[in-house]
Amino acid sequence: MMTKILIAEDEKENRDEIVECLVDNGFECVEASNGEEGLNLLRRDTGITIVVSDILMPGKSGLEMIDSAQFEIGKDRDLEFIILTGHGGAKEAIEALKLGVLDFIEKPLDLNHLVHVVRRAEELIFLKRASRHHKAGMEADVQAKTLQIQTLLGSLEKAYGEALECLAVAAEYKDPETGNHIRRIGEYAELMAKELGWTKERQNLMLLAAPLHDVGKIGTPESVLLKPGKLDPDEVAVMKQHAQNGYDILSHSSHPVMQAAANIARNHHERWDGGGYPRGIKGTEIPIEARITTLVDVYDALRSKRPYKSAFDQEKTLSIMLDGDGRTDPSHFDPDLINILRKMASKFDQIYSRLAD
Fold first, then answer.
1. Residue 14 CB-density burial (10 A; 0-12 exposed, 13-18 middle, 19+ buried)
2. How crowded is the C-beta side of 51, counted as CA atoms within 13 Å?
């Protein structure tokens, strides 16, 4: 059965474009020209599982529609919400996230990105249904284990929510790195943790924490962040502030994932030989989570296109990291982690290829 999506958008041209794109990608769509009409459709049509809504519409706004829908039917239905806006900023993004919105997409729309977000929403709906069916089929004699699982899920959801609160502030900023870069960093880090013999829980911690390494860049001016050429000394100093800024943002949480992310953010530009920043620490003074993230971030940066460089293939990337090129040197990295990279290079390549931009 096709996933049914409600498109709530007052501009017919935009609405038609979105519907055509999503139908071409295998989704079923119903349309509303304002928030009140959209809410009535949600009340009547229980088959709708995803809502793509503009914020500003005549009468009831998109956020008001979502708030009402969550209050009236959100507890009884699996629903995911995606917000579109040509007017929003950090304040609107945070309000949307507090209402349980999955993502916040700015206009003019990148339809490919919209399809990607909708598919992610579809995956979450499937996971919620599978989880609900699994719980419904549990026998009484496993209720104690169920309680443990629910406690763990609640803990992870708390960390996820806190991460969103931190990252929501970035809504007004543009970063040259893609969503897939963030996903790759998490999977590389999880792979390294596995090869180090860490527990599944600690592997998962790296999967969640490593992608937050550059959250401090939300305070870096776009003129520096997006500059295609070489940075001057003053710009370099501004760019380097993102490490401490990231720590300041993330360290307010007591959750283990966020604590690990804070240490990663502050220390992922430190070098094994002591030549990094912001504190110039070296060796095992650098937290192991940050040492892992340093290595996988450099690997992915070399593999990826950036405003200041073209993408390098696997062979050239490994040559630079394992042998050095005058700018990057093996002495920058934990030797044990370099050995894991050498051993697991093919799996790194597989992750990059599977999640390529």
1. middle
2. 35
Tokens at 8, concatenated: 């709530």
Q: Which residues pair with 106 in a beta bridge?
A: 85
Structure confidence at residue 149 (pLDDT): 46
Per the listing, tokens 């030549």 go with 275
Active site residues: 217
Look at strands 48-54 and 80-85 and give their pairing.
Answer: parallel
What digits encode the pLDDT tens for the residues 172-202?
Answer: 344 555 557 888 999 999 999 999 999 998 9
- pTM exceeds cut of 0.70: no
The three-state secondary structure class of 139 is coil
Q: How far apart are CA 220 and CA 224, in angstroms?
A: 7
Q: 13-21: list long-range contacts, CB under 8 Å, 24+ apart.
A: 14/54, 14/107, 14/109, 17/109, 17/111, 18/52, 18/109, 18/111, 18/114, 21/111, 21/114, 21/115
The dihedral built from the CA positions of residue 101, 105, 109 and 112, taken in this order, carries a sign that is: negative
Separation CA 263–CA 268 (nearest Å): 8
Which tokens belong to 29?
A: 């769509």
- Structural domains of the chain sorted by starting position, each given as residue range(s) with its CATH number in brackets: 4-137 (3.40.50.2300), 163-354 (1.10.3210.10)
Helix or strand holding residue 8 (H, E) = strand 4-8
Q: Which two tokens stand for residue 314?
A: 């696997």
